[in-house]
Design a protein that fits this description.
Elements: H1 8-19, H2 24-31, H3 35-43, H4 49-60
Length: 71
């Protein structure tokens, strides 16, 4: 039986990805990141600011030029 304990972030992310009809391969290709990073992001194991920004750009139809990721 799969784990059904989804966080709100995971549910919203999956909803947005399905709404935009995005595939993980498209995200990988457009952001030049590995498959494991995308799959871990989608399962909620890890966060990835690059994917967050990419989804925001796709949803609102904007392009965020200058941003920095401080860790």
């Amino acid at each position: 039986m799969p784990n059904c304990d989804y966080s709100q972030r995971q549910i919203i992310t999956k909803f947005i990805v399905s709404l935009l009809d995005l595939k993980s391969k498209e995200i990988q290709t457009n952001l030049n990141i590995s498959k494991s990073v995308v799959s871990r992001y989608m399962t909620g194991e890890r966060g990835c600011p690059q994917i967050d920004i990419y989804l925001i750009e796709k949803v609102f139809g904007i392009k965020i030029k200058d941003y920095s990721i401080n860790e």
